[in-house]
Specification:
globular; 2 domains; four-stranded antiparallel beta sheet; six-stranded mixed beta sheet; 8 helices; Rossmann fold; single chain; alpha/beta
Length: 246
C-alpha cells in the first residue's frame, strides 16, 4: 500500500512576537496540495504575519513543514512565494514588469549567472498567464493596484513556487478582475499549487473558497465557510459588532 503523501504545508504552534506585542499565538493547521484557502480576520489580527512567518520572512516560534520537510531557514522555503499587499509595495522602485517577473528565476541561477533564453521564456509565460504580457516594458509604478498584484503573481509563477501566499491580493480590485483572478487561482489549484489568500471579504470567501481559516491572533476556526464563518466563529474573530451577514 502506497503511504499517504504528507501535507503541502503543516504549521505547528506558530507564534510571533514584535517586541512585547504578541502578534500570533500557537497557530496550528495543515493544508493539502491543491487547496485554495481563504485566511479571514480583521485588520491587525495577524493574517499578514501568519503568511510572512510561513514563508520565513519573520522570525517565529513553532514548526513549519513543507511537503513533510521541516524548515529551518528561508532557503528551505524556496518553493514558496509571498505576494504582498499593495500598501507594502514600493511603487517607485525602478523596475519594469518584465524585470520583476524575471526576478522569479533567481532561485535557478548560480551566483553571478545572468538569466538566459530559457529563463526569459519562463518569465514571459508567467506574464501571459496573468494577462500582463503587453505590460512587460512598463515601470511597475505605472500599473494599477490590481495589475501590480498580478505582476507579483507572475514573479511567483516564474519562480515555479508550488505554495503561494497572497496578502489581500483582491483588495481594491474591480469585480470583473476579481473574478478573473479567482479563476486563475482555481486553475493554479487544479495544476497542483496550494494557495492561501488573505481577504477581508466574507461574501467572497463564502462564494469562492471551499475552506477558510479565521484568525485573530490565534486560529479561531478552520473549515468550510458554513462552519468557519458561522455566527459564533465570526463573533470570536471580529467581535460582536460585526453582523454575521456582512
Amino acid at each position: 500500500m502506497t503511504p499517504a503523501a504528507p501535507p503541502a504545508l503543516r504549521a505547528d504552534g506558530v507564534t510571533v512576537h514584535y517586541g512585547t506585542h504578541l502578534a500570533l499565538h500557537e497557530v496550528s493547521f495543515e493544508v493539502g496540495a491543491g487547496e485554495l484557502v481563504a485566511v479571514i480576520g480583521p485588520n491587525g489580527a495577524g493574517k499578514s504575519t501568519l503568511l510572512r512567518a510561513l514563508c520565513g520572512l519573520v522570525a517565529h516560534r513553532g514548526a513549519v513543514e513543507l511537503a513533510g520537510h521541516r524548515c529551518h531557514h528561508r532557503r528551505d522555503r524556496m518553493g514558496t512565494a509571498y505576494i504582498p499587499q499593495r500598501a507594502d509595495i514600493d511603487h517607485g522602485f525602478p523596475i519594469t514588469v518584465g524585470q520583476l517577473a524575471l526576478a522569479g528565476r533567481r532561485r535557478f541561477l548560480r551566483t553571478g549567472q545572468r538569466p538566459g533564453r530559457e529563463h526569459r521564456r519562463a518569465a514571459e509565460t508567467a506574464l501571459r498567464r496573468v494577462g500582463l504580457a503587453a505590460e512587460a516594458d512598463r515601470p511597475l509604478g505605472a500599473l494599477s493596484g490590481g495589475q501590480v498584484q498580478r505582476a507579483f503573481l507572475a514573479r511567483a509563477l516564474a519562480q515555479e513556487a508550488r505554495l503561494l501566499f497572497l496578502d489581500e491580493a483582491l483588495s481594491g480590485v474591480d469585480q470583473p478582475r476579481t473574478e478573473a483572478m479567482l479563476d486563475l487561482f482555481e486553475a493554479l489549484r487544479r495544476d497542483g499549487a496550494t494557495l492561501l489568500v488573505a481577504t477581508h471579504d466574507l461574501a467572497l470567501a463564502r462564494r469562492r473558497f471551499a475552506r477558510c481559516l479565521a484568525i485573530n491572533t490565534r486560529l479561531v476556526a478552520d473549515g468550510p465557510p458554513a462552519r468557519a464563518l458561522d455566527n459564533a466563529a465570526l463573533e470570536a474573530t471580529f467581535g460582536s459588532a460585526l453582523s454575521p451577514t456582512r
